[in-house]
Amino acid sequence: MSVDRFRPRLWLGALLLCAAGLVQATPEIQTWETDNGARVLFVAAPGLPMVDLRVVFDAGSARDGARPGLASLTAAMLAQGAGEWDADTIASRLEGVGAEFGSGVDRDIFSVSLRSLTREPALDTALDTLTALLAAPRFPAVDLERVRENRLVALRQQQESPRTQASRAFYRAIYGDHPYAEDPSGTAEGVGVITRDDLVAFHQRYLVGANAVVAIVGALDRAGAEQLAERVVGALPRGAAAPALPEVAALEQAAQRHIAFPSSQTAVLAGQPGMRRGDPDYFALYVGNHILGGSGLVSQLMHEVREQRGLSYSVYSYFLPLDRPGPFLMGLQTRNDQAEQAIAVMRETLERFIAAGPTEDELEAARRNITGGFPLRIDSNGDIVQYLAMIGFYELPLDHLARFAERVEAVDAAQIRDAFARRVDPERMVLVQVGGGAGQTARADEAE
């Protein structure tokens, strides 16, 4: 068994595109609703005698409230005891039939996954176990203390990473008092005061049918998938969907934060709120960012910062769309004495891209890169089920993956220039630096 945290991934958009070729070769996505209000998305994949299942709830860390880390700790505690079984029994049941269980959260989503053979008794054992984990977790107090201490150790270790410190400071700076401000892993203060009653209340409020999406990919027919979905989430109360998250406010002015850290390298992040899932500018911003900083060694940022000046081994940019606008972010790590120069080059490259956009050669190369190689990168039902869960959770069109390549091909340079000019403002960006040595004085947020 594994408990995984969802982390921002520079290649997320690329993986989504990869699925286009494979989804087109599979039966059309089928969708329906369970008796207790969960939305189900299903793709039959008869090639292997396996099923991949993902249940996602609108219960990510944005629902933590005054207890940062509550959603993540709840996910970590699911497999510590459920129904009549303790943690060892749960692990034995799953391992005995070769099933794999996972749980985790990001800012939007609380996710539980299962992979199992479809033959019996393996599937029956795996589904019974998953049903108990979802509907009847015990949250035993002694295990909570152990899991809490492990989390506190991990949080202390994060303080030793300039990149992690930079990420936390960046999100707090651009999101302020919005629920997206805190990292899904929480804070030492929040984790330290979470009680068993908090876990129970969170579970009862958010792990309910009306707040769930079930994604299924495997060797089942429609009837079998319907039975599986009802079995897994049918024991959950219908409940109510989570309320809409508050809107994300645009930054009113630029801000800078420099955190002293005893290291020879400075971690740099710069950005602002970007776009949300289903954004009308998604494709123009995605393709444009691929050229700006999302395509590795051939991106403009990499060319200017690394290849031309040798200021950083790696520099990147990405949009992370969420239910509300996630960040647009540029990042690098460089020697302390080169930090200001690297920041200046990164900013100048962004400003030039907003003003001029890509060349036709850059755009054509980006289209080929995005659409040409992606089908080769999707090689498991486990990948597809993640995309189905994303489509269901964010209420994207069912043809989202099948038409991805087509929509990428339709993006032109004028659309990219227009979208970046409207959506990215270099004069209202947050800049976070972590580094500069132990003796350097830290500066609080300040307007530039």
Task: Explain the overall architecture.
- The protein is α+β, with helices and mostly antiparallel strands and 448 residues long.
- The protein is 42% helix and 19% strand.
- The protein has 16 helices and 15 strands.
- A seven-stranded mixed β-sheet has the order 1-7-8-4-9-3-2, with helices on both faces. Strands 12-13-11-14-10-15 form a six-stranded mixed β-sheet, sandwiched between helices. Strands 5-6 form a two-stranded antiparallel sheet.
- A hairpin with a 7-residue loop joins strand 12 and strand 13.
- Helix 4 runs parallel beside helix 9.
- The radius of gyration is 23 Å and the shape is globular.
Provide a short characterization of the protein structure.
The protein is an alpha+beta fold and 448 residues long. It is 42% helix and 19% strand.
- How large is the radius of gyration? 23 Å
Strand order of the largest sheet: 1-7-8-4-9-3-2
- Provide mean pLDDT, rounded: 91
User: How many β-strands, per DSSP?
Assistant: 15
Given the structure, what is the number of helices? Answer: 16
